[in-house]
Amino acid sequence: MPSYRIIVDLSDRKLHLLDGNTVVHSYPVGIGKMVTQTPRGEFTIVNKQNNPGGPFGAFWMGLSKPHYGIHGTNDPSSIGRMVSAGCIRMYNDDVLALSKLVPVRTRVTIRE
């Protein structure tokens, strides 16, 4: 049984899925703007929702910091840029693939 955790590297705008200490997938992400920066620290996924509506694309995974999450986007050109209100944006296909692998309570580390 895999022991997944997520590391988000803000400096290179990538989300890494690890099984133990091995990176098994890396995805490009969009992150928070200078004035609404993505929070750094240790969090967990607390909920998951398919098709949340609005700008959140195909899937939402809420973090233990209220109002922040990892989600899809209806604006694929925003991936790789500092554009969000602090959330971590992924391509819809990527967030759907990730959501199938990681359960609620998965650890998420967000770092510079």
From TrEMBL:
The keyword Phosphoprotein does not apply. The keyword Glycosyltransferase applies. GO terms for molecular function: glycosyltransferase activity; peptidoglycan L,D-transpeptidase activity. It comes from the Bacteria. Residues 4-111 form the L,D-TPase catalytic domain. GO terms for cellular component: extracellular region. The active site is at 71 (proton donor/acceptor), 87 (nucleophile). InterPro entries: LD-transpeptidase, LD_TPept_cat_dom, Transpep_catalytic_dom. Keywords: Cell shape, Cell wall biogenesis/degradation, Glycosyltransferase, Hydrolase, Peptidoglycan synthesis, Transferase. GO terms for biological process: cell wall organization; peptidoglycan-protein cross-linking; regulation of cell shape. Pathway: Cell wall biogenesis; peptidoglycan biosynthesis. Belongs to the YkuD family. PANTHER family: L,D-TRANSPEPTIDASE, L,D-TRANSPEPTIDASE ERFK_SRFK-RELATED. This is L,D-transpeptidase. It comes from Paenibacillus arenilitoris.
